[in-house]
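quick one, two chains, predict together pls
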Amino acid sequence: MGKVVVIGGGVSGLEAAGQLARMGYRVTVTEKEDKTGGNVKNWYHLFPDRRDSKEIIEYLNKLTDHPDIQILTGKEITEISSDNGKFNVKSSDGTILEADAVVVATGFELFDSRRKEEYGYGIYDNVITSADLERMFRSGEVRLVNGKVPERAGFIHCVGSRDEKVGNYYCSKLCCVTAVKQAIEIQEKIPSLKTFCFYMDMRMGGAYYEELYREAQEKYGITFIRGKVSEISVNINGRLVVKAEDTLAGRPLRMELDMVVLMVGTEMPEGNLKLAALSSLKCGENRFFKPADNHFGSNLSGRKGIFYAGCCVAPMNITESISHARAAVSEVVNYLKTK
Amino acid sequence: MDTSENRRYWIDYQKEIADDHFFYVRSCIRQSFFPGSEQFFLKMMREILGKDVYENPSHTTCTGIGYHTDIVPFETIMTVIARHFALMKEAGYSNIAISCVTSFGIYTEIIETWKHFPETLEKTRENLYKATGREFDVPENMAHTSDIVYKFRNEIASKAKYRLINRHTGKPLKVVEHIGCHYSKMFPKYGVGGAEFPKVLSGMIEAWGGEVIDYPERRHCCGFGFRQYIVQANRGYSLSNSVKKFESMKPYRPDFIITNCPGCNMFMDRWQYAMREMEGKTYGENGLAIPVLTYEEVAGLVLGINPWELGLQYHMVQSEPLLDKLGIEYDPAEKYITKDGNPIPAPENLVNIS
């Protein structure tokens, strides 16, 4: 058998580690944060079925509760080097882990909304991100900064995605359906709320996404407006003033809202770009790791013995991340058997 | 609005502004309509702050208005700007100080073009040499003159005779700051504070004791806009944009407006006259209009310079109510006389004069 280092303790990394251990490999998982679970641990409910994210974490913890899995948290990997088929995985604290194969499962990080300055995140009270709203959902209360219940809320899609200005041409894929899910959820918590979603296109490409979108409109009365928001400001009453274009009506639009939720996109973490540069791993135009082949080698890095799993190559939902991690395990096993 | 450390961008977009030895280029509009502002800038820099500012009388218009109305081609304007740089080089200067926001936008656009398309720089060198026999260097430091006043705002505050405080209430004056679109909306990195939350004017107001108003249409164009105004048929659009801004700022009861762009200053000032004449509407307190000042005029007022030397009388909206709030003394009899003491005709129908 052999030893595998999995970089990243999110959904893909833990899934890959669990499956490898089941097959008899010794696995070390490194996680740069203090806790495993990746981005999903910061979410409340998941689309499309509103599963509590704690169930995913529990599943992954159970899967990786294995004597052949060692989990090292607070360890950021900076470089992968190799010598005669053996890999040295270096971390920022100077330690080196030896491995016969490496799975890169470094995931994504959320777009920093402060870069879209015109939306005033971090400046205007009550402009929050989708991640902030999940925290509110988890706490049980959705309130304005002054403690009041919002009367009107808006969701802005594609914040940091499909946006040339911030250098991200790609679609982050998860945000449209998250907006629909969150709009329903906030509507359930505050039935009197009037909710608006500002979108470019509704990309409801997953199983049961379209149904959720229809339910949002028919059952919950959520208004979807096709058009990007150009700017947010605050009026003398402290209410947010949103300027947008309604491209279906063909006219500009301005409305007052109490709360605006920015649907933040996904990005390749900055540290991964350095890891890629130091480890001779290629990145694509979207800056995520570039797989050897889009169809037949989406888990292959182009360097023998180094494999990709999950969102480190492109935005994926939980289902896809788990499937991609399992496929990566299959590639690792084939590689180690024929080595 | 969060007024604490969260204004991260205003820290992010800090540009390097030279400390001394400036080559000064004037603004066509400013030297025609608000000549006191440029004059006071030079006086303040040289006599109050002790800086070296050189001005070459051979420098010309940047041709920016012609460029924005499709009369002057880009290749031509690049050569005109290159000639200014040549004058600067010949005078031994490398820091350019630009008085006009339209020009500043032109300079930034051209320098960025030269960076990204080096062949255009070489072509411009060739064009200038063929036309004039001159050679030039790209400036080491480029600043709008409002950047320079921003840089020295605390020094000005330390020499101030007045603070931007309402002497009747003891409270800070409420100030609308308005940057010209071409100052940083095209290239945020060239503006102090960037495009969305610019710091260049708000920094001055805060340093001099005032309070900046953030109102919903703060980022909206003043209404000038070359196409909106220069094409006569579009002037209603120009005015309607100005109305939108004034309607938005009115509830905050601003004491005055500070601008860094010649076009913004002129239009926000002159259109208040038009709005009063057309609709009988004014947007300041007690039925008054809101004075629109340049940053040099505001700096001059806090430094205790005679308002008539600063040229406040050349605006349509008169500033006496503001001067009274500040506690600045002035002699109405001196308002329309030349430096030599000769009377000049007083304009009619001024705003804020009872």
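The radius of gyration of chain A is 21 Å.
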